[in-house]
Amino acid sequence: MINIVLFGKPGAGKGTQAEFLKEKYSLTHISTGDLFRYNIKNNTPLGLEAKSYIDRGSLVPDAVTIKMLEDEAAKHPDTKGFLFDGFPRNIAQADALEQFLESKGWSTTATIALEADDEVLVQRILERGKTSGRADDNDESAIRNRYVVYGNETAPLIDYYKQKGKFHPVDGIGSIAEITTRLSNVIDSL
């Protein structure tokens, strides 16, 4: 079983690359953003709980996010592996993911980080904002704030996974095909 954590700053191309990787390696793609949207749209108990935090402008607690992820993973007992996109976002979530995987007899195979300069990423997101419908994709100060949050909360995962020997940085600048090839080379070498 291959379990990949795909992360990088907002705009690094995680969602785009996840589409290619899930097909190529027959992985089950779990995106926390998609999980939130599904659970909220369908008024599930977890969705209602998450919405109550979002509506107050608060972050959804790790416990709610983790439970959504565990519930989704449980729906795919025969998968060849998972591609986690947007999760974990902090050390507590990484620990919870490891514990969950271990409870199933699985483990994280690798964490692959798409790396790119902030200025390039800001321009990517502003361009994406022209069609995404997301208000925060059109507000440069909001975009830059997302990088501050990433630096404070998510960047510590680099050391977390390096200590486990599972961290693999990949250059996230270039054509979609070039980046897909770089990611595939890492996965094929595992």
From TrEMBL:
Q: Where does AMP bind?
A: T32, R37, S58, L59, V60, G86, F87, P88, R89, Q93, R134, R146
Q: Cross-referenced Pfam families, in alphabetical order?
A: ADK
Recorded hits in InterPro entries, A to Z, give:
Adenylat/UMP-CMP_kin, Adenylat_kinase_CS, P-loop_NTPase
Q: Where in the cell is it found?
A: Cytoplasm
Q: Which domain of life is it from?
A: Bacteria
Binding residue positions for ATP:
G11, A12, G13, K14, G15, T16, R128, G174
Pathway assignment: Purine metabolism; AMP biosynthesis via salvage pathway; AMP from ADP: step 1/1
Q: Does the keyword Transmembrane helix apply?
A: no
Quaternary structure, from the entry: Monomer.
Query: What does the comment on domains in this protein's record state?
Result: Consists of three domains, a large central CORE domain and two small peripheral domains, NMPbind and LID, which undergo movements during catalysis. The LID domain closes over the site of phosphoryl transfer upon ATP binding. Assembling and dissambling the active center during each catalytic cycle provides an effective means to prevent ATP hydrolysis.
- The name of this protein is Adenylate kinase
Gene name of this polypeptide: adk
